[in-house]
Amino acid sequence: MTTTITICDTCKREDWDSAAGHTDGEALAELVEALTAEVPDVRMRRHSCLMGCSRACNVTLQSPRKMAYTLGGFSPSAETAAGLVDYAVRHAASATGVVPYRDWPAAIKGHFITRHPPLPE
């Protein structure tokens, strides 16, 4: 089942450089989009404001009938993007959306904010 990564494209970290021409969220989204282009069962989308401004850059991982997650406090880096995509692949492969801690990529450890149980059928 497909897992969707949603990245807040309006996120700006405290050290955001307005001269960069784009937000930190946009930069992270670009990196993740490049990695997910050929990955089966992982979809990427952008959304303006996930309302987690104090923990920018914010991301959600969701799939129908599976545990969903909100993560934040990322830097827009290649390492972050690779960790998010790796976790999304594992989430997509899991029947429940729960990925054992031992299988979490190092780049996402310490970035989980909330988890949401699936909605009832």
Say what the CATH topology is.
Glutaredoxin
- Report the uncertain regions: none
The level 1 CATH classification is Alpha Beta
CATH superfamily: Glutaredoxin
Order of helices and strands: EHEEEHE
How many DSSP H or I helices?
Answer: 2
Strand content: 15-25%
Assign a percent range to the helix content.
10-25%
Instruction: Please summarize the sheet with the most strands.
Output: 5 strands, mixed
Structural class: alpha+beta
Mean pLDDT reading: 95
Strand order of the largest sheet: 2-1-3-4-5
N- to C-terminal separation? Answer: 16 Å
Quick one: how many beta strands?
Answer: 5
Computed Rg: 14 Å
Number of domains: 1
CATH architecture: 3-Layer(aba) Sandwich
Shape type: globular
Keywords, please?
globular; alpha+beta; 121 residues; 2 helices; 5-stranded mixed beta sheet; Glutaredoxin
Structure description:
- The chain has a single domain (3-115), classed as Glutaredoxin.
- The mean pLDDT is 95.
- The protein has two helices and five strands.
- It has a five-stranded mixed β-sheet with strand order 2-1-3-4-5.
- α1 packs across α2 (78-93).
- With 121 residues, the chain is of the alpha+beta class.
